[in-house]
Amino acid sequence: MTDVTEFSVGDRKLYLSPVMDLFDRQIISYTLGISPNLELTNTSLSKALTTLKDGEKPLVHSDQGFQYQHHSWRNLLSAAGAAQSMSRKANCYDNAVMENFFGHLKEELFHRVRFISTQALTAALHEYISWYNTERISTKLEGLSPVQYRAQALAA
User: In 10 A of CB 106, how many CB atoms?
Assistant: First the structure.
């Protein structure tokens, strides 16, 4: 699952394009940039696709943003054997898990600190995503972090 969110720091903007594995809600790749352009989303998808094991053919869900309808995005998916799934028009519930992640990120990090630069926010986002994946517990994951949940599932 993927989407893009925007942060404003003074008169500058920073965009985050993460890719989440819905099995354990881990952010498996992400890209930060100053524009919500094709390079931002295609880079995060390319990084995510490099984590696939042989034979894995994921379903990649997004909203109907222009980036996800572009031939370059579809070519990346096709080359990896991945299938595309898009939200229905004007239905935010289809992307609820990613919107939930953005809500937690902004509440737990962005709205609690006044960032003086996009560089400071970039560093904080790297730390947050690492913490989110490895330490932040979730009731939806039986009180485990995404990494802990996956490890437990693989050990069973």
Answer: 13
